[in-house]
Design goal:
The complex is a heterodimer of chains A (about 800) and B (about 270). In chain A, about 60% of the residues lie in helices and about 10% in strands. Chain A is of the alpha/beta class and about 800 residues long. Among the domains of chain A are: about 210 residues, Growth Hormone, Chain: A (Up-down Bundle), CATH 1.20.1250; about 220 residues, Up-down Bundle (Growth Hormone, Chain: A). In chain A, the strands form two sheets. Chain A has an eight-stranded mixed beta sheet with strand order 7-6-5-8-9-11-10-12, sandwiched between helices. Chain A has a four-stranded antiparallel beta sheet with strand order 1-2-3-4. In chain A, helix 11 links the parallel strand 5 and strand 6. In chain A, helix 1 runs antiparallel to helix 8, helix 23 packs across helix 24 and helix 23 packs antiparallel against helix 26. With about 270 residues, chain B is of the alpha/beta class. Chain B is built from nine helices and nine strands. In chain B, helix 3 packs across helix 4, helix 4 packs antiparallel against helix 5 and helix 5 crosses helix 7. The two termini of chain B are about 30 Å apart.
Chain lengths: ~800, ~270
């Protein structure tokens, strides 16, 4: 066993995976999230293509293989430098894809350039496997371990460097692999000179990257920075996001401000996360009259309903809702904010209103679900404002993103933290066609029932020209409270949609149909009536749960065709961008993976007259899908456990890859292990995992983050360990046979890996995490059965 | 002047410069303007080929423009004044040269600086919703390329348009003058405050996304006036809203349709 080669593989894998994670961040910032995932999906093809190519064109002898491995290890860091440098030269404009064919050519070029380092990295690993064909587990283990290390390194680097500069680091990591590979060469001194040059070049690139940050001009940050007299006043970097604070006289932020408001808005500082507007900080102390604006915002509605002494603001952001609570007499305010930079900048550039009592304000940095689960405090009001994330969600941009703040369990948890007479208030933008606010109404009613609250008189819906505020009160509203709310709303041109007025009046703000009235009436009438309403509504607006936490996903796949044919088919892009992008990713993955992976092998297979390949195809496809499906399900649920998707992604990748690496290396000890046995064991393991995961996540939720992180690793580790075995055991089983069978093994696994990501995302979206884990277990079952078939993957 | 521009662009003129052996504009221009009729004839005849090509191009643009308006009409815009104005205003003059071939597609196009010229259907829809008439006094917030202002001016409205980005304000002003829309009043300023000196307005049209409706714009709207504005989340989707101010000054709104904006400033630009 060659240790230098193992180290080289570890470094190459670490570099390429760190590059993948950083690239997703950079693409998400410079362009939009959809294109990051689409591009990476294609880039991953690089791995598969290199595997298939190598299986078809094998090196002549061991000497040639060693030479190829050396040059591949030299090429990886160079590709990691060239790829981002060249990609940044391509004038790609994602917004013009629909009508400008040139953008497709540019996108294709971006794909090819992105695939380059992954392809060469994959080649290096596979050549190393070829050199250790009788003990592939250790090399695979090194590859897995390196990838896990790369995930952790990417996270660490993002604490210190902006993502675009951080993109230079993976090349340096891979260059260490070149150095290790050089130590293994016969002509060591000349190889070391080459490796030294590569390492030096990579180090220079880290200090001075040969590419420049290129933010799309259509994001909010460049737009506001182009305003007259705009200036950037602060910048913060972390894995949670790139935060920029900008001041400009023309920048103003007052979501849903009443049409009847007359007055000046105070000076504000815009806070941007990844180039998008996240919040605004206001210096309320600057002008004593400025805070008057707060009472003209829709989010002030709950304060009409009586004293709100203790207030919990979820998504505190720039502090607008904190100021709102103080102006309305709250003396004890707790604001929970996920991103640490936002409260820090709010404190630096803003100030609470003076002469409105001394409120005790406590900022909690972290996830609101964790806070609510662990806190012993209770509140008179819990409020979720029309924050930027909620706004972005209306575009369907986050349709695919988990959001545990708006699930049935979340609303029930908030309601259970209310004091007697307390109110839960959720304000969101009114997006056409109406979907999000309808779901909030149905979820609120459902959660009220769950905590044995009064649904029939505990629900209120207030609508402005552009927002909807839904308020739930478990103890029920009095007639006097409703009267006060109607008076306050009328003075601001807001409509009270529910309770329905005894004497109907012309609404201040007209919609095509009174959907919020209908939704509230159905929600209050009972669960069956609410379900019937949801079933007949054009979009999926039923409440979502923690195991299927996609409150911003509204499109029903089964009604897609009918929707396109309807008069409002043209509204689709407005409604479900995320879903459209996911389907597009699936189509491009199937087509390209089919063309690049399956077709060449199929042609080769036909000419060689090989038959009986079905078991190999089935086995390697099944384990490829199963691995990705389990990974995606774990990422989803760990988002709730760890409180942030970035932590979840890194933890799952690190735990899965490191533990799978160990499992892969361990599998070398059992050289005669049957693929069917290991796959069969995984069916049971995943069944147990699916059964316990949601419960364990909820039980651990109140614990401190380090304990939750350790628990997550302990939970995932054993599963990932066993999941690392089927591939090397299967490859070992087919290694002795002819190259066509090996090629089919690579092609099938590559195809499944590339296409599994969008398929698994669709399953998670439609059926949830538990169903996805069950699907993963079933896939291992298919693998076990395939391995039992005649001429199957067995010795 | 127009002839000069065409000559400068045409190969025949370049040939003339070379033929004279002294490719120096200050020497040649007097010849073209005051000098030999023979040379002038040569130049004009030589330029006929490109002129004919240009006519053909204009004719093609016109056909595309008519087809675009037919499409807009088929999607429900009925106001004859709006449709006639859109048949008349050459949209290809409002987009960058390399995007002209796409000028009559029913979609927005970039005009630089992160701004776009709006989808023609949305321009027509917003124009129609204002119920424009000759002499109507309209405030536009967000000049962009100047296309929307031109459509309104083509109908006969007195248009006051404000642009916050100086580069766009300057280029739009030049373009509007060049295309003969010099009656449109332009200003480089923050549209949040409206145009107090020219207020009140019969209509206000806002083509930049905002999280709220600026109070000054509401105040500068005449009783009985109409305002159309895309509002809501400034991130991706806004609602196009019609604000109606009745004779007593009371306000009502109507949500019209979703529109997609690039953050802060819109596709409608």
């Amino acid at each position: 066993m060659n240790s230098f080669r193992t180290i080289a593989v570890t470094c190459v894998a670490a570099g390429t995976l760190a590059f993948q994670i950083l690239l997703v961040r950079v693409f998400a910032i410079e362009h939009f999230h959809h294109f990051a995932y689409m591009a990476i999906g294609i880039a991953m093809l690089g791995f598969g293509v290199s595997g298939t190519a190598l299986a078809l064109i094998r090196p002549r002898d061991r000497g040639t293989t060693e030479r190829w491995f050396w040059w591949a290890s030299v090429a990886v860091p160079l590709a990691l430098i060239l790829s981002p440098a060249l990609v940044h030269q391509v004038p790609f404009d994602a917004t013009q894809l629909v009508w400008d064919y040139r953008q497709w050519l540019r996108l294709g070029l971006v794909y090819i350039l992105l695939a380059l380092p992954f392809g060469i990295g994959g080649l290096a690993v596979l050549l190393a496997v070829t050199l250790e064909a009788d003990r592939p587990g250790r090399i695979y283990g090194a590859s897995f371990f390196g990838s896990g290390l790369g995930a952790g390194l990417a996270l660490a680097v993002l604490w210190f460097l902006p993502p675009v500069e951080a993109l230079a680091v993976p090349a340096a990591i891979a260059a260490l692999g070149t150095l290790a590979a050089a130590c293994d060469r016969k002509k060591r001194s000349s190889a070391l000179r080459v490796a030294g040059l590569v390492l030096l070049g990579s180090a220079i690139v880290v200090v001075r990257p040969p590419w420049q940050f290129s933010l799309t001009p259509y994001k909010a940050l460049p737009q506001v920075e182009a305003y007259p007299e705009a200036r950037r006043v602060a910048e913060r970097i972390s894995p949670l996001g790139w935060v920029v604070a900008v001041q400009a006289p023309a920048f103003r932020y007052a979501p849903g401000l009443s049409l009847r408001f007359r007055g000046e808005l105070p000076q504000q500082t815009g806070l941007f996360v990844d180039g998008e507007l996240a919040s605004a900080v206001t210096d309320w102390s600057e002008a004593e009259s400025a805070f008057a604006v707060l009472d003209w915002l829709p989010s002030a509605a709950p304060y009409v309903l009586g004293g709100r002494d203790g207030v919990l603001v979820i998504g505190g952001g720039g502090g607008t809702e904190v100021a709102n609570a103080q102006v309305h007499g709250a003396s004890r305010i707790t604001a929970v904010e996920l991103h640490p930079a936002l409260p820090e900048l709010a404190d630096r550039f803003g100030a609470l209103p003076r002469n409105h009592g001394q409120a005790e304000v406590r900022w909690v940095i972290g996830d609101a679900r964790h806070f609510v689960a662990g806190s012993r405090d209770s509140f008179d009001l819990i409020t979720l404002g029309p924050g930027a994330a909620f706004g972005a969600a209306t575009a369907g941009v986050h349709a695919l993103g988990e959001d545990f703040l708006h699930t049935r369990e979340a609303y029930a948890a908030y309601l259970s933290r209310l004091r007697d007479g307390g109110v839960l208030s959720v304000t969101g933008w009114l997006a056409l066609p109406p979907r999000q606010n309808v779901r909030v109404i149905l979820t609120m009613a459902d959660a009220l029932r769950q905590v044995n609250g009064r649904v029939e008189d505990g629900l209120v819906v207030v609508r402005s020209w552009g927002t909807v505020t839904v308020m739930g009160k478990p103890s029920g509203y009095s007639a006097e409270e409703i009267r006060a709310l109607r008076t306050w709303s009328a003075a601001r041109n807001f409509d009270v949609d529910y309770p329905v007025a005894e004497v109907p009046a012309d609404p201040f703000n007209t919609l095509d149909a009174p959907v919020f009235v209908e939704a509230a009436v159905a929600a209050v009438a009972g669960r069956d009536e609410a379900s019937r309403f949801g079933e007949t509504y054009p979009f999926d607006v039923a409440p979502v749960t923690d195991v299927r936490p996609y409150p911003h996903h509204y499109l029903r796949l089964r009604s897609l065709g009918a929707f396109f044919k309807s008069d409002r088919g043209t509204w689709l892009p407005f409604a479900e961008w995320g879903m459209v992008a996911l389907l597009a990713t699936l189509v491009q993955s199937v087509v390209l993976a089919g063309l690049l992976l399956i077709l060449p092998v199929a042609v080769r297979s036909r000419t060689s007259g090989e038959s009986g390949l079905f078991p190999i195809v089935a086995y390697f496809s099944a384990i490829g899908f199963a691995y990705l499906a389990a990974e995606i399900a774990a990422i989803q649920q760990l988002g709730l456990l760890l409180g942030h998707p970035v932590y979840a992604v890194v933890m799952v990748l690190a735990a899965f890859l490191i533990c799978s690496g160990a499992g892969s290396a361990w599998s070398d000890r059992y050289r005669h292990a049957e693929p069917a046995t290991v796959a069969g064991i995984l069916v049971l393991v995943l069944a147990v995992f699916a059964a316990i995961l949601p419960t364990v996540v909820h039980l651990l939720q109140p614990a401190p983050l380090p304990i939750r992180a350790v628990a997550a690793f302990v939970l995932l580790g054993p599963v990932a360990f066993v999941m690392g075995m089927p591939f090397p055991i299967g490859i070992r089983a087919v290694a002795g046979s002819d190259s066509t069978r090996t090629a089919w093994a690579w092609a099938s696994n590559g195809f499944a890996s590339v296409t599994a990501a969008p398929v698994a995302a669709l399953l998670a979206l439609e059926l949830g995490a538990v169903a996805l884990l069950v699907a993963s277990g079933l896939a291992y079952g298919v693998a076990a059965l395939s391995a039992q078939l005649p001429r199957a993957v067995r010795r | 002047m127009v002839v000069h521009k065409q000559l400068v662009d045409c190969p025949a003129y370049l040939g003339l410069l070379l033929a004279c052996g002294k490719p120096h504009i200050s020497r040649i221009m007097p010849v073209l303007t005051h000098g030999s009729p023979v040379l002038l004839c040569i130049a004009v005849l030589g330029g006929m080929g490109p002129l004919a090509a240009q006519d053909a191009e204009e004719s093609r643009y016109r056909e595309q423009r008519l087809a675009m308006v037919d499409l807009i009409a088929s999607r429900g815009v009925k106001d004859s004044a709006t449709l006639a104005a859109m048949r008349a205003v050459p949209r290809h003059e409002y987009v960058p040269t390399d995007s002209r071939r796409l000028a009559y597609g029913d979609h927005p196009l970039p005009i630089g600086h992160g701004q776009t010229i709006s989808q023609p259907y949305i321009v027509a829809f917003m124009t129609e919703i204002l119920q424009p008439f000759p002499g109507m006094k309209v405030l536009e917030v967000g000049t962009g390329s100047g296309y929307q202002a031109s459509v309104l001016a083509q109908i006969g409205a007195d248009v006051y348009t404000i642009e916050i980005f100086e580069v766009l304000a300057t280029s739009a002003r030049e373009r509007l003058t060049r295309l003969g829309f010099d009656q449109i009043q332009t200003r480089h300023a923050d549209g949040h405050f409206g145009w107090l000196e020219a207020a009140p307005f019969d209509a206000v049209i806002v083509t930049a996304a905002a999280g709220f409706i600026p109070p000054a714009l509401v105040e500068q709207l005449k009783p009985g006036g109409r305002m159309v504005i895309p509002v809501g989340s400034v991130h991706g989707i806004q609602n196009l809203i019609l604000v109606l101010k009745d004779e007593s000054g009371d306000l009502r709104t109507r949500n019209l349709l979703p529109v997609r904006f690039v953050p802060m400033l819109s596709d409608l630009r």
